[in-house]
Amino acid sequence: MNKHIQKTLEYAAGNFFNKLLLFLLLPIFTRFFIPEEFAVYANLMIFFTLISLVVLLGMQQALFSHFYQIKTQRYQFSLISSVYIFLISTGIIFSVLMVVFKDQLAIITVRDAAYSSLFIDMSLIIFFNTIFTISTGFLNIMERSRQFAIISSLQNLIVLILIVIFAINKQLTLQLYFHFFTISTFVAALVSMITVLQITRKYDLPKKEKQWFSSSILGSMLKFGLVMIPGSIATLILQASDRYMLTYLSPKTLYDVGIYAAGYRIGMIVHFLVTMTSLVYIPYAMKIAGQPRAKQINRSVYNYFILFGVILGSAVIIFAKELFFVFIDELYFESNKVVFAGVTSAFLYGIFNIINIHFYSHKRAKNITIAVLCGAVLNIILNFILIPKIGIYGAGIASIIAYLSILCINFAVSVKLFNTKYNPLYFISGALLLCLFAVINSYITLSWIAFAIKILLSLIHI
Question: ∠ CA(92), CA(110), CA(261), 5° rounding?
Fold first, then answer.
């Protein structure tokens, strides 16, 4: 038990540090970038996430189901080596293609070829990030929590230091940010890969038993991982299609994207809890998947996640106006109105991940993919309907409904296939409470009296 508590604290420290660094960037960005420039940054980061998912070819998800399939150092060494060789090779190909088609990519993502030079940085960032992501994935599945926490924080820390230096001198630009991102990703990739390779060197294996490349292991992982790619892309559509569709459907185009992206990011504070659950619990859940106590432990995690998710989410929603008033530039103040969308969407997505543990343990990736594809299609349809009518609010509502749909689909399937006994009233009540807090808070004006009342009510609630 002490071992798990230590790992939880280490993961929590690293994850909290990362989220704090990302949060600190938002006040800086809103003061140096106008909403249209912030929209370019937001759209490019969505593009970065999308292409990273494709380049990884589902290997990160495949690790959870394959790493402990054979519990020998010979097998794990071969798996690690094969994945590195494969991803480095494919990553080079993808990066070269990005440079060749940089003008076309700029027009697709931000409707302006003037930003094409950013895709040279982006090609390097995606290549280095592929190495970094799979390396930290290895550390996570091997439960090297301390190394994972330190290395995963390195990338954001380097970016923050460089940004602060140039921000103090009032020289920060969008182009410079992506230069900094390239540097930090390179350093993080190098350190993380060296760390993993140092671990494999300690394996007690004769040289003749070291199989550097295994087509059978790689083939099995690709068979699982490639099925996950449509689901991963669909997940990104859930998370980001609203910003792209605002670019094309909203009357204010990039301005609305910038406002919406800032508000959504504040709401994603709840994603700290989601990430913690994934980092700490899912590797452990894969280890105990075949044991009788597994279902009971999953239910306990489900219940506790909903409880703490509602507490954290309601706090973010209730104090959204105060957060923007203190930390964010006044140009973005109206962004507080869509914080509820980021909070509620992250809350529902976290529950969805917990339910998916059963699908991972039974290697039923297609069920996850089908659910997310349905949600992505619904999200696009709702965005087409709602954005022209109510703008950023329509995008937020579409996001919540889409996340709720994927949760309900896999909730029903898990009950049918695995006889899970989660209580659906818990997540339904939690989502309704968060939305109710958002409606109430929209009628409360920003003032010291209102702030004091909120603090008092929060203390009474605790």
Answer: 100
Site of tokens 């068979």: 223
Cα separation of 237 and 269, whole Å? Answer: 20
Q: Within 13 Å of residue 66, how many CA atoms lie on the same side as its CB?
A: 27
d(CA 333, CA 325): 7
d(CA 428, CA 111): 39
Please name the residue that has the structure tokens 């993919």. 369
**Closest alpha carbon to 439 in 307, 302, 314:** 314
CA distances for 382 relative to 142, 357, 372, 379, angstroms: 41, 29, 15, 5
Q: Which residue has the tokens 């003037």?
A: 114
The dihedral built from the CA positions of residue 48, 183, 56 and 152, taken in this order, carries a sign that is negative
Instruction: Please give the C-alpha separations between residue 229 and each of 53, 64, 233, 282, 336, in angstroms, as whole numbers.
Output: 7, 15, 6, 19, 33
Give the DSSP letter of residue 445. P
Residue 410: closest CA among 361, 358, 344, 363:
358
Nearest Cα residue to 268 out of 349, 331, 322, 379 = 349
Q: What phi, psi does 20 have (nearest 5°)?
A: -65, -40
Q: Give percent helix, percent strand, percent coil of the chain, each to the nearest 5.
A: 85, 0, 15
CA distance 125 to 181: 7
Which pTM value belongs to this model?
A: 0.71
pLDDT (tens place) for every residue of the chain, 462 residues total:
455 555 555 555 555 666 666 677 778 888 888 888 888 888 888 888 888 888 887 787 777 777 777 777 788 888 888 889 989 998 999 999 999 999 988 888 887 788 888 999 999 999 999 999 888 888 877 777 777 777 877 887 888 888 888 888 777 888 888 999 899 999 999 998 998 888 888 777 777 777 788 888 888 888 777 776 777 777 777 777 787 788 778 877 778 888 888 888 777 778 778 877 776 777 677 767 667 777 788 888 888 999 999 999 998 888 888 888 877 777 888 888 888 888 999 999 999 988 888 887 777 777 888 888 899 899 999 999 998 888 888 989 999 999 999 999 989 988 888 888 888 899 999 999 998 988 888 888 877 777 777 777 666 655
Q: Which two tokens mark 7?
A: 């790992």
Identity of residue 337 = K
Q: What is the per-residue burial (b if ≥16 Cβ within 10 Å, else e) of 241-263?
A: bbbbbbbebbeeebbbbbbbbbb
Q: What is the spatial distance between Cα 293 and Cα 297, in angstroms, rounded to a whole number?
A: 6
